[in-house]
Design goal:
19 helices, 7-stranded antiparallel β-sheet, alpha+beta, 950 residues, disordered N terminus, 23% helix
Length: 950
Amino acid sequence: MIKKLIFIVLTVVGLAACSNSELKQESASSKIHSTPPSHLLVEDNVNPLNVHQPKPRLSWYANVKMQTAYQVRVASSEALLAKGQADLWDSGKVDSSVSVNIAYQGKTLTANQKAVWQVRVWSSDSHQASAWSAPSFWEMGLITQSDWQAQWLQVKDRTVAKVTPARLEWMHYAANVHSAITELPPKHKLETQWGVVEQLKAQPTASLFRHSFNVDANKPISKAKLHSTAGGYYEIFINGQKVDDRLADPGQTDFDKRILYNTDEVSQLLDKGQNTIAVHLGSGWYDENIAFSKWSNPDAQKGKRKQKTLSFGQPKFIAQLDVTYADGTRQTIASNQEWLSHPSPILKEGLFSGELFDANNVVKDWSRNTQTKNLANWQPVEVLQQWPTQRLEPQLLPPIRAVKKVTPIKIYQPRDKVWVFDFGQNFTGIPTINLAKLSLTAGQAINLRYGEWADIDGNLSQKSGGGAPLLKQVDTYIASGKDASSWSPTFTWHGFRYMEITGLTSKPALDAVYGHLVRSDVEIVGQFKSANPLVNRIHDMALWSYEGNLMAVPMDCPIRERAGWTGDAHAALITGNYNYDMENFWQKYLGDFATSSHIAPAVVPGKRSHGGTYDWAVAEVIIAWEHYRHHGDLKVIEQQWDSMVEYMDAAESQLTDNLLRKGYGDWCDPVRVPGMTRKRCNPEYTLPTMTTSGFLAHGAELMAKMSALLNKPQQAQHYQALFERIAGQYHKEYYNPETGHYGSQTADAMALQFGITPPALRQSVADALNKDVLENWKGHGSIGALGQTYVYRALSDYGYGDTAYGIFTAKGYPGYQWQFDKLKATTLWERKGVWDPEKDPEGRNPAGRSLNHPFHSGYDGWFYEGLGGIRPLGDNPGYQHFALAPVFPKSLDWVETSYKTGYGKIVSNWKRVGNKIEWQFTVPNNTTAQVTVAGKPPKVYQAGQYSLTL
C-alpha cells in the first residue's frame, strides 16, 4: 500500500488522454495559451492582511491545459516587482505541474511587512513562458506578542441594570418560569430555574468603549491597518461606522490558549484631524456562565465543591491601529488607559438566553466625535497587566455573516395578544424587527421567543432545546418613543422556525419581521440538482442543516448545545467538503484539537469537552487526511502530526484483543416504528465496538499514508500493521459466513469502504448489504450518523446504484418523503422516529430532541461522488488528478453537478435521451480526469469539455 501511495501520482501524471469513437471533444484547444495565471491566493485568501505563516502557501489558476513549470517572484513593493526586482524571493523556473499551496521560500518577513507577488507558467504545448500574472499581495500581521503595543482592556466597575417589571419579564422568559409559558419545567426543577432568575438579575450589561485621537491633517495617509479582537463578541467602529460586517465575532476557540484576531484596512474611514475609535463588547462564548452551570443556593450548606464554570472571565478586548503616511512616517493608536467605558443599552445578553435591549439607555453618538461634556458619565477602563491568552492568531477562516434573508410565510394567533410568525424554514439566524411598523410607545416592551416547533394552532414550543441548557431563547426590546426604524440583537443568535411576539395590542403585519441565516461565510463551491424534486429537496435539507450549524465550529445543533462535537464533524465532513470551501475552516478546527486539554476529545473547542471518545475524536485524523485530499496541503498534516499521534497512541493502548470496545456508536439510527423509545440515542443495530474499531482501523490506515507522505517509514509500517491487526479481528469476530455480512448496514458499509473485508468477499458482502436494504428494510437505510457517509458508496461501487438511489425515494417511515409529509421537516431531525405523527396529528406533544442536526447529512456527498461521479482519484491530492464515475439510476432522468477545486470547476452533467445517456463533463485546466463507465476500462482525459454518449 505504501509503495502504491508513493508512485500513484507519478503514474497518473504519466497517462495520456485517450481517444474514443464515441467521444466528442468540444473545446480542448491545442493552441498556445496566452492567458496569464489568475485567481492568486495566499493561505486561501485574496490579499490577506495578517499572515503569520513564515512560509505562506501560494495558489493560482495556471490557465493552461497542463502546466509543466512555474516561476514565482516576490518583492517588497509593486514598483520593484514591475522592474523585475524580486528582492524577497525568486523561485526560478520550477519543474512542477502543481499550482496549489506552494510554500513561499524567500526572506523572513516581519510584522506588518507587505509582500507583492506574481507568477508565470510554462505549458505542455509551448516552450515559451506565459505572461506574468497581475500582481497580488499579502501582509504579515502582528506575529509575536511584542508586536502589539496595545493592551487588553475591560470594564473597571461593571454595571448591573436596575430590575423593572419589563426587564424582569425577559428574565422570567429566559429562565423558563414566566407565567405565560405553556411548557413550564417540572416541579423538581423549578428551584434551579428560579435560581437562574437570580443569576440573570446579577448579570452585568454589555459595554461600550471609546477613544478619540488625531491624525496629521497635513499628511496624506497611504495605509491604515486596524488589528483587533476580543474575549467575547465585539463590534468595532471608526467615526460611527462599523469597520466590518462580521457577526458573532471572533470565532470560538480555547480562549486561554489562543484567540483569533482580525486585521482591516480602514484608511477610508479616517478623517483629517480628530477621529474616534469605539468598541461594543458582549459575552459571546468567552463568558457563558449560566446555561450549563448549575445554580447553587447561597443559603445552602457551605463548603461544597465549587460549581464548574464554562466562563473564561470578564469580557475584554484589544485594538491597535497602525497608520502609515505617504511620507513613510507611522503612527500607532492602541487600546490603553486613556480609553473610556460606558454601560451598553444591551442590559442582558447571552448565546443561550438572548438579549434584553432598552432603547431608553441608548447613548447618542457614542461611537463618533463628540463634545467633552457628553463624556461626563463615561468611566476609566481597567488595563490588564497580563494577556488573557497564550497567543493571538489571525482569523483566516471566513467570519460569520448574514448570508441569506428569510421571510415569514404565516402568522398564527394561538392566544389573546400572542402572535407567532412561521418562517417556513428552520434555520440559524438573527431576526430584524421593523419597529416603524409596530408603532411602539415609550416604555412598551415586546418579547420575542424562538422555537423549532409549533402545534396546529401556532402554540410555540421550546421543548426541542432539551433540558440541559438552563436558559431559553428570548429577546426583549423596550421602546423609548424615539426608536430607530429597525432593531436586531447584536450578541446572540437563535435556532428557530417560529418566533412568538408578545407585548403588542394589535396583530403585526407579516413584513414587520424578517430574519437572516447566519453562518461562517465559506464560499459555496458545489452545485447539485436533478430531475427528481424530492432528491433536490433532500439535498436542500442537508444544506440548511449544515449551514445552520457552521459557526466557526461545526456545531451539533443551534439551540441545545451548540457544541463542536467531533463525531458530528466527521459524520458530515463529506457534505461540507463538496458544498463549501472549507480549507481554512478545517485548519482552524484542527487547531482546536491541538489546544484541547483532553486526549480523544468529544467536543472541541471549549470547556464542555471530555476525553476518551475514540470513535468521535478520530475526526482529527479523518479531517486532516481529507483536507489534504481536497486541497493538496501537506503542511496541515505536518502541523497536526503530534496531536494525531497522541490520539493514536491513546487509542491503541485501549485495545482489547485487537479491538476498541467502547464508544458512542452509530448514533441515532432509526427505531423500527415511530415513537419507539430507547436510552438516549444509542445505536440499535451496530455494536459500538464495530464502529469504534472500524474507525480506528481506518484512522490507522490514514496515518500510514500520512507517515509515508512525511517520510516516516517506521511509523508507516507500524500504522499499516495496526490496521491489519484491527481489520483481521473485526472480520474474525463479526463476519457471519452464513449470512455473508457483518450484521448491519453500517457495519457492512464501513467494512467495505475501509478495506476491512478481504477482497475475495467484498462483492458478496455488498450483495448481502443490498439484500438487507431491500428485504429487511423495504428499501430504507437503517443507518445512524456514522453510517450516512459510507452506505451509498458501498452499494453503488459494487453495482447497486439503484438501491443506493432508492433509499432517497423509498416510501413510508423512515424515508425522506415521510419526513417531509409527516414530520413537516425542513432540516434533519436528531431522532426522526422520536415522535409519532399518527398519534399526535395536531402536534400537541412536541418532540423533545433537536430538529436541526447535521450529523445525518453525510448522504449528501453521494450526490457528488455517486450521481455526479466526481471524486478524488485514489490518494492524489487537490483534485489535480481526479475520477469521474457517475451512477445512472434507472428511475432518474438527469443530473447536473459541479465542484470548484483549487484548479478550477469540475462539471459532470448527464441526461437520458431515449435508451441512451448523454454525459457532458469538464476537466479544468492543469488537471486530468480518469473516466470510468460500466463495461469499459478507465480512460484519462486532459483539460477540456467533453460529450460522451452511452
